[in-house]
Amino acid sequence: MLTPFHLAYHVTDLDDARAFYGGLLGCTEGRSTETWVDFDFFGHQLSLHLGEPFANAPTGKVGDHMVPMPHLGLVLPYDDWRALADRLEAAETDWVLAPSVRFEGQPGEQWTMFFRDPAGNPIEIKGFRDLSGVFAG
Predict the structure, then answer these.
(1) Can you list the alpha helix ranges (DSSP code H) found in the chain?
(2) Under a CB-based contact definition with an 8 Å cutoff, are residues 96 and 122 in contact?
(3) Sequence-distant (≥ 6) Cβ neighbours of residue 134 within 8 angstroms
(4) What Å distances lie between residue 132 and 61, 78, 79, CA to CA?
(5) What is the average per-residue pLDDT within 86-94?
(6) What pLDDT score was predicted for residue 52?
(7) 72-77 and 122-128: which strand pairing?
(8) Are 71 and 57 in contact (CB under 8 A)?
(9) pLDDT of 29-68, one tens digit each?
(10) Residue among 9, 37, 11 nearest 22 (CA)
(11) For the chain, how long is the longest CA-to-CA vector?
(12) Cross-strand bridge partners of residue 41
């Protein structure tokens, strides 16, 4: 049984975070104070606190691309992933890695996209038509 994770990290502006996570990504806002806000991040608890975002660098190799490490990641069923990718494309997202498919026709076939929140925190969202392929070898 999967259980929700909790992750807390810094953002530079709570209004920008609300617009991005709540408005664009569609996450429901939970508790908040003047210095932090919680979101239901696709079934997980994401706590965004005012402060200096964590350092990251393009040191992770994904296919032929270098992506920011560390980064927050999420796995969605393909239809949900596609709907989110379409929303982000309509919002003219500045992609780290535009929506694309990896391992096509192989075990673990997946769609992926990398982007940043307004504070520069990197996010990867993967989509699977068959969620049993998430841990395919």
Answers:
(1) 14-17, 78-90
(2) yes
(3) 75, 108, 126, 128
(4) 24, 12, 15
(5) 97
(6) 97
(7) parallel
(8) no
(9) 999 999 999 999 999 999 999 999 999 999 999 888 999 9
(10) 37
(11) 48
(12) 44
